[in-house]
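Hi there, hope your week has been kind to you so far. For a while now I've been wondering how a particular protein folds. I'm sending you its amino acid sequence along with the C-alpha cells. Could you read through the record and tell me how the C-alpha cells relate to the sequence? Take your time with it, there's no hurry, and the full record follows here.
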Amino acid sequence: MEYHNPVLLKETVDGLNIKPDGIYVDVTFGGGGHSKEILNRLGPNGKLFAFDQDEDALANALPDERFELINENFRFIKRFLRFHNVRQVDGILADLGVSSHQFDVAERGFSTRFDAELDMRMSQKNDLSAFKVVNEYDEANLRRVFFDYGELKNAPAIARTILEYRENEEIRNTEQLKHVLGRFLPAHKSHKILAQMYQAIRIEVNQEMDVLKEFLEQSLEVLAPEGRLSVISYHSLEDRLVKRFMKNGMFEGEPEKDFFGNFTVPFKSIGKLIVPSADEIYHNNRARSAKLRIAEKK
C-alpha cells in the first residue's frame, strides 16, 4: 500500500520525548512512518498502540510484538486503551487530515484531481458519505457545512445552487459537482476554492471537528503527568482547536484562576509552533500547510 513520507517525522517524534520503556499512541497510523520511528526509539519493554479507522491501513501493520494496531476511530482512544488494560500513556501523536494514500486512491473521492463517486469516507463503515451530504442535506445544513468548514462567504449561494440542480437530478460524482458549482470557481483561484469546498464536505462526512474535540479531551485523561501530546494540523479550523486546548485545556472561554489569581491550566507548551522546512515541502508537497504543536501534561 503506497503511502508518502510522514510529515515532520523527526520533529513530531522528538516532541514525545520518548522513554525506552514507555507506552505511546499513534492515533493516525496511515502508512506507519511515525510509528516505525517511535518503535526505533523504544526499548524491548516499550509499547506502541496505533489507531486507524481506514481498513486500507491494516495492510501496513508492523510485525513487532511491541506494536498493536486498532482499526477504530481515535475518538474512542480511552475506550480501546482500557480494553487493552491501559489507563495512562507517556505520549500521544496525531497527524490530522487525510492520508496521502486516501488522496491518491481516486475512487475514495477525496482529491480534486480525479473524477470519482462522491464518497470521502475515511472509514468504509461510515454510513454518511459525500453523496448523502450533497444530495440529502437541506439548504440550511448545506449552508452551515460550506460556511463553517469551508469558510466560504458565499455559502448561501452555493447551497441554493446545489438545491436547484437537485430538483432535476442527483449529483453523483466529483466532475458533476465541479460543473454544478462552476460559477463559483473563477479561473485564477478555482483550485483553492474547490479545495475549500471539498474540505467542508469531508469534515462533515467524517465529523472531524467533533472527533478532534473528543480526542483532545480524552488525551488529557489518558496522558500520565509529564506525558507529551504532539499534534500536526493542516488547516486553521483544526489548528485553532489544538492551540486553544493546549493553552487552556478547553475550547472556549477562560480557564479558572487559583487562590492567587493565576490561571490553572493542564498543559505547558513545549517550544514554539513548528512548520516544515522549504526542503521538506519541496520533497513532500503534503507538508506545505502542516503545523506542529507540542504540549506536556502538568
